[in-house]
């Protein structure tokens, strides 16, 4: 799970066992002055990228599902005219 606000980004790595979500690891960080100028979509994508960077050792060679409250992110993978910053982040996922 990933989420972003105007002040910080956060993520929870969890495992689903029999319809229950069990948290394994939490991560958060305060955004810097440059990141504070990002659009909402960019901040939400920043949260996803931050989660993948922090939880990389857990995620390598494993199937993963990202839960976010920002539905516009799912369209970025089909979009060809997205901002350069977002296009650079997509291959990291």
UniProtKB/TrEMBL annotation:
GO terms for molecular function: endonuclease activity; hydrolase activity; RNA-directed DNA polymerase activity. Pfam families: RT_RNaseH (PF17917). Residues 2-92 form the Reverse transcriptase RNase H-like domain. Signal peptide: none annotated. Keywords: Endonuclease, Hydrolase, Nuclease, Nucleotidyltransferase, RNA-directed DNA polymerase, Transferase. The keyword Transferase applies. InterPro entries: DNA/RNA_pol_sf, Retrovirus_Pol_polyprotein, RT_RNaseH. This is Reverse transcriptase domain-containing protein.
């Amino acid at each position: 799970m990933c989420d972003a606000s105007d002040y910080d980004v956060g993520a929870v790595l969890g495992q689903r066992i029999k319809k229950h979500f069990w948290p394994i690891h939490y991560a958060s960080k305060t955004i810097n002055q440059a990141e504070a100028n990002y659009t909402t979509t960019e901040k939400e994508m920043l949260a996803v990228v931050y989660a993948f960077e922090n939880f990389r050792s857990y995620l390598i060679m494993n199937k993963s599902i990202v839960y976010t409250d920002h539905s516009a992110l799912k369209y970025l993978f089909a979009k060809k005219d997205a901002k350069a910053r977002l296009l650079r982040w997509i291959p990291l996922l």
